[in-house]
What does this fold into?
Amino acid sequence: MKSLNFDLLNITRHCGEGSFSTQATRARGLQQLADELHDLGYKLKAAKNLAPKHVDALVTSWKANGIADATIRNRLGWVRWWSEKVNKSGMVPADNVTYGLAMRQRYNGNKAQELTPEILDRVKDPRIQMALKLERLFGLRREEALKMRPVIADRGDRLILQASWTKGGRYREIPIWHPRQRSLLAEARAMCGDGSLIGDGRNYKQAQKHYDNTLLKAGVRNAHGFRHKFAQWRYKTLTGWECPAAGGPTIDKMTPQQERGDHSARFQISQELGHDRLDVTDTYLGRARPVKESRGA
It folds into this structure.
């Protein structure tokens, strides 16, 4: 193992910040950064040797390779964590605009969509129907719904998503807290047997293309909206009230106790959806704080 990789590994092992999933994702991300820096010609001996030129080189490389702004923002989050641990917290600008990245659009209207019987009737393939149900009741992404092997993932009180099934290789756990979830998993296990919804004789890319074509023929344009609906359903279960996107109150209308409940629910939902950043929940739930109106000239 290279010196920088070993040093970063020791730092992550001794910093227990965040959930197990967050720690594992961060550790993998930092190892990836170390490998990339080495490939770019920067053979750092220790984590404390990180300098602005190294960050600039990484961002330049990511952009040259067509990495999406959202992914670069996530990776810069790992760099900021790294810089903080080596007492260089001010080295990486907090504003991603400094690196020429588009500002994150945290909320652009309620995208939640209910999975109705009418929609399912238009989707002719039972396996694609099952994938959509898993997206709605567990907040899974398309890839996760297709790749997951229910016989392995179902642990009774929680759903275990292996890193090889998820976006960015992020292992995570989703509580099984509702009878509808329990019933759906029983159906999924019966349908998949020892395998996944991809089925025998196909690989993931073929299954993905079939999924997309099936939804296109069925006129389903916003399947990601079922994941949004899960997040809003989960929020109401955890808090007792609707989220802002669904007409619920923003923080300025909450009691201190409700505000704490909002924060706790958003943190849990972000973990269950496979995100590391709390503010990402704004996309699904609406902004916790009202948007201030700009003053006229």
In short: The chain has three domains: 3-99, 107-123+220-289, 145-218. The chain has 13 helices and two strands. The radius of gyration is 21 Å. Residues 107-123+220-289 form one domain.
